[in-house]
Design a protein that fits this description.
InterPro entries: AI-2E-like. With about 350 residues, this protein is mainly alpha-helical. The chain has 14 helices and no strands. Helix 2 packs across helix 3 and helix 12 runs antiparallel to helix 13.
Length: about 350
Amino acid sequence: MRTAPAWPLSTGFTMAAGALLAIALALAMLSISTVLMSIALAAFLALSMDPAVRAVSRRGVSHFWSVAIVAGAFLAVVAAILAFIVPATARQFSYLVQNAPEAVENLPNSAWLSSVEQATGLDVSAVLLQALESVTTPESMLAISGGVLRAGVSVVGAVSSAFIVVVLTLYFVSSLGAIKRAAAALVPAYRRARFSAVLEEITTSVGGAVAGGVTLSMINAAVVFVLQLLIGSSVPVLMALAAFFITLVPMIGSVIFLVVGTVGALFIGPTAALVFAITYFVYIQIEAYQITPKVMGHAVDVPGVLIIIGAMTGAALLGLMGALLAIPVTASILIIIRQITVPRRDAQVHPPPK
């Protein structure tokens, strides 16, 4: 039989103070969510650059100069994005917003859509109009972007966030070894060697997986850019940028963009949509069976079903960033299970004493 606490008033105040402290901590985490997202993005980029640092170091270059070379290449890419991709994307997005209503209005009058309706007996134009009107308004585009375009409204905020991400990325890349040693120092000495080995395997495997995923998305974006130019698209840079971010999600990203790109090509014409769909579908097959095995190499092997579940869960929690972070997190958990949990269970050959 349980007895009442000796000091019920003080116990109640202590519990209430603990609850208030937990609520305050949750509100504080919510208020700095932008900073936490910047840190997570910087860590994501640093992990993707770590394999390049290792590759340069294997050629006999010192760690300092390896980091300097990779950091210089990263800054050159950032400068190229600011100089070429950002202005082109802004112009093409503005063009898309201005011309989307007219394109949607003229869609039912197209000859190819009328022939499709006559052949199938379906009111395809009504369905397409309803779907397109829901996603081509500025409000819907801002909502679909998951906050990225809303952040772009505040130029100062966007520039400062990008600057913070670049600085943190360079810091994480240059001090990744020191960070791992500091983390190992928090572990008891008798477990430090095992912890360091598992942590090294996690950073190496996950870094390879992240770098491979970014490389595949860059190749995918380049293919989409060329295809958009071939079919006469007026927004090739915008479509390539969308392909890059969408295909960062493994397995399902390319399939999703196949639908997105085909629907977008319908505004050009049925022939353009058919050419894009067939060509991009062929590329997806080549990517899956030829490019991906060569690019990913010996990166951690994550079962496809876990990739899909992790991506869906991360997207539901944090949007696109959550879907991206779900893959490294899932891979890290798998390594821990394979290297620590499974060996411990295998060592338990006898039942515990009663």
